[in-house]
Design goal:
With about 425 residues, the protein is α+β, with helices and mostly antiparallel strands. Helices cover about 35% and strands about 25% of the residues. The protein has 11 helices and 19 strands. The protein has helices spanning about 1-15, 30-45, 55-80, 170-185, 230-235, 290-315, 325-335, 340-345, 360-365, 370-395, 425-430; strands at about 50-55, 95, 100-105, 120-125, 130, 135, 145-155, 155-165, 190-195, 200-210, 220, 250, 255-260, 265, 270-275, 285-290, 345-350, 355, 400-405. The strands form 6 sheets. It has a 5-stranded antiparallel beta sheet, with no helix packed on it. Strands 5, 6, 9 and 10 form a 4-stranded antiparallel beta sheet that branches. The mean pLDDT is about 85.
Length: about 425
């Protein structure tokens, strides 16, 4: 149990401190792709010398940070078609005529045929289930001291929560304790305390939205069969549904539709995120793709932003045991190698190595007879970045100061023991911080 708690602490620390804000579809992999990654790590380390790592919190953060940053840049390039050489920079870009109502991202495959457009009216948004408890005097408490418990049933799973009420506890302190307990359990319910003058209430809201299928509510709160003292559910009033979950109601190309979430895929062509309700009945938002020139410009802007973000991440790191200057030199070297082609496409390299897109030069480049060559150079640059990010992800420890201890025996080349975990030593470093 202690090991599980420690592992959970490490995992949460990683997600909140180092990890990127959200995952994308490019973070999922087939078994064959994971096997290829493992084989690449094995090959990389098979004849690698033995190193002694100098570790501290800065090196942990830097190793994980550049790995996450490289993955983010890799995903940016993938999102503009970089995983397919023929599709690189050719990814279609969607637009919405009113992003206050909804935003759209094109996720379909590029093809020669006409890409469909949609007229969408948003009549209502999908909402979560809310249980708003009783408003009670913040500074008093009518429950007797003791150990209480209650059950929350969600996603067909039952979770028991136990807590103590001691002398001097108030409604507000217990409500805040329960809010931390429920939210921290990460079971799909966000709990908070609301205040109205001298009164406070415990509010439970489901992370999921949409009317449940085959059952009445998304979650249920009860202490009927709890193992400890019952009565707190009725006292705090958290067992009653204040607002049931509901679906988003839409009209798409004249047809009424109902979806359970405000983020959904539309006929495998668009990823739609609902942000608001149409202000006038019958008023629609148009979703379509931009023309090739506009899409190309958006893709290049994405590439520039991704490259600059990674460069900024690396340049912000510093320390005697970090080789961030080596990585900066390598990244800037890639850009410098394609400098002429990038300039012809309207991309300028600044003094700090960052890129900027000159709209006028870019427009002129597309009108020029050598436009195809300029785009090809940008593609080659993106392809080089893709290979570099894969290299960084495989072995971020190469940018940490380390002492060479011994080379593998050259007479046993090909027969040395495989050490596939040397490149991910930082994972052990983080765990050591909590043991």
């Amino acid at each position: 149990m202690t090991n599980m708690v420690a592992l959970n602490t490490v995992y949460n620390h990683y997600l909140t401190t180092y990890s990127r804000g959200s995952a994308s579809k490019y973070d999922t992999h087939k078994k064959s792709e994971l096997r290829n990654v493992y084989n690449s790590i094995v090959k990389l380390n098979k004849e690698s010398p033995l190193y002694l790592l100098k570790t501290n919190r800065n090196t942990h953060a830097f190793a994980v940070g550049i790995k996450e940053g490289a993955t983010e840049l890799h995903n940016v390039i993938a999102s503009i078609g970089g995983l397919d050489e023929n599709q690189l920079l050719n990814k279609k870009v969607a637009f919405s005529t009113d992003e206050n109502i909804l935003t759209a991202q094109y996720i379909g495959k590029n093809h020669a045929g006409e890409i469909p457009s949609y007229e969408i009216e948003v009549r209502s948004l999908a909402t979560p289930q809310v249980n708003l408890g009783n408003y009670l005097p913040a500074d008093s408490m009518e429950l007797s001291p003791g150990t209480y418990s209650f059950d929350i049933n969600i996603h067909n799973m039952n979770y028991e929560f136990q807590y103590n009420i001691t002398e001097g506890d108030t409604n507000q302190t217990i409500q805040k304790k329960l809010a931390r307990l429920i939210s921290g359990a990460d079971i799909g319910i966000e709990a908070s305390v609301e205040r109205d003058g001298e009164l406070t209430s415990l509010r439970l809201a489901s992370s999921a939205t949409g009317a449940p299928i085959g059952k009445e509510n998304l979650f249920f709160v009860s202490d009927t069969h709890s193992s400890k003292t019952a009565g707190s559910v009725a006292y705090f009033g958290i067992g009653e549904v204040t607002r049931p979950a509901s679906n988003a109601e839409l009209v798409i190309n004249g047809m009424e539709r109902s979806v359970s979430a405000n983020h959904f895929t539309l006929e495998k062509n668009y990823e739609i995120k609902l942000n608001g309700i149409s202000p006038v009945e019958g008023q629609t938002v148009t979703v379509h793709v931009k023309d090739d020139v506009e899409s190309l410009g958006e893709n290049i802007n994405k590439l520039v932003d991704g490259y600059n973000s990674f460069l900024h991440l690396v340049s912000q790191s510093s320390g005697r045991q970090l080789k961030n200057t080596n990585l900066l030199y390598e990244m800037r070297g890639i850009a410098s190698h394609y400098k002429n082609g990038l300039n012809h496409a309207g991309l300028e390299i600044k003094d700090d190595g960052a890129l900027s897109l000159n709209p006028e030069a870019y427009t002129q480049a597309l009108e020029d007879r050598d436009a195809k060559q300029a785009v090809t150079m940008v593609k080659d640059f993106a392809d080089s970045l893709l290979r570099k990010t894969s290299q960084i992800s495989l072995d971020p420890m190469q940018y940490i100061d380390r002492t060479l201890v011994a080379y593998k025996n050259p007479m046993k080349k090909g027969r040395n023991f495989v050490t596939p975990y040397i490149t991910s030593a930082y994972s052990g470093m983080m765990f050591n911080s909590y043991c």
